[in-house]
Amino acid sequence: MAVDYESAAVAIMTPTGLRTVLEQDLSLGPKDDPARERRLEEALAQLAEASVKEASQAGASVIVIASPGQIREVLAEKVRSLAPHLHIITDSVSGGGLEGIHEVVRRDSVLKALREMDSVAAQEVVEEFLRRVSSDPSLVAYTLDDVTFAAEAGAVERAVIIDEYLYASDDEQRERFRRLMEIIEQKGGRVIIITRDSPAASMVFNMGGVVAILRYRLQRTSG
């Protein structure tokens, strides 16, 4: 999210781009208005609640908070008090709103941090996947066809996809992977995108480019 004294915006970063979930003007009044600080405090509290809610619904574990000045630190504390489990990254931008969001997501430092968090999350999924393969294979899915079947049933809790499949030269394959990602997210699952140089990528690649942890046991019909 990005905020200043005039505007604020919250967006979710997806593999296909940013999805804006909130954009608003902050009507704080003139600088000499005694109620200005109170209005700012209320606005930041509302932003914190909205961002935590959106992060929860999207299954996000990281929130990037950007602003000019120190507003970001105040907002970060409010988010942290509501959701201590979230990893918070703060950075400076020239302004709030969507322009500020577009500015901060181009930062190499922010992109690197987000990739590292995704890499850790993907490794956790892979480790859980391997445990379940040994103990209860009906609680996992792998290969494009199998994970698509599970996704359409609403069974996918978390999935890991290698990014190159989303940009493949094969039009049909590319669209099937992108559609799979959309189905999982629409049904409340989380998709983690990793690059081929991620620690988990080798195993995921050998499993057809995608693996998934399921919410419940899923029986497949043969033939």
Report on this structure:
The protein folds into two domains: 2-106, eRF1 domain 2 (Nucleotidyltransferase, domain 5, 2-Layer Sandwich), CATH 3.30.420.60; 115-214, Ribosomal protein L30/S12 (60s Ribosomal Protein L30, Chain: A), CATH 3.30.1330. 46% of the residues lie in helices and 23% in strands. It has helices at 36-58, 71-82, 97-104, 108-135, 144-152, 171-186, 201-206, and strands at residues 2-3, 7-14, 17-25, 62-67, 87-92, 140-142, 156-162, 190-194, 210-214. The strands form three sheets. A four-stranded mixed β-sheet has the order 6-9-7-8, with helices on both faces. Strands 1-2-3 form a three-stranded antiparallel β-sheet. Helix 6 links the parallel strand 7 (156-162) and strand 8. The model has no long low-confidence stretch (mean pLDDT 88).
Offer a quick outline of the entry:
With 223 residues, this protein is α/β, with parallel strands linked by helices. It has helices spanning 36-58, 71-82, 97-104, 108-135, 144-152, 171-186, 201-206, and strands at 2-3, 7-14, 17-25, 62-67, 87-92, 140-142, 156-162, 190-194, 210-214. The chain has two domains: 2-106, Nucleotidyltransferase, domain 5 (2-Layer Sandwich), CATH 3.30.420.60; 115-214, Ribosomal protein L30/S12 (60s Ribosomal Protein L30, Chain: A), CATH 3.30.1330.
By CATH's scheme, which homologous superfamily of the largest domain applies? eRF1 domain 2
Give the spatial strand order of the biggest sheet: 6-9-7-8
Largest sheet: 4 strands, mixed
Q: Tell me the span between the first and last alpha carbons.
A: 49 Å
SSE order, as H and E?
A: EEEHEHEHHEHEHEHE
- Reported CATH architecture of the largest domain: 2-Layer Sandwich
**Residue fraction in strands:** 15-25%
What is the CATH class name of the largest domain? Alpha Beta
Mean pLDDT comes to 88
Query: How many β strands by DSSP?
Result: 9
Q: Shape, please?
A: elongated
The count of helical stretches stands at 7
* Category by helix and strand content: alpha/beta
- Rounded to an integer in angstroms, the radius of gyration calculated over CA atoms is 20 Å
Q: Unreliable segments (pLDDT under 50, ≥5 consecutive)? A: none
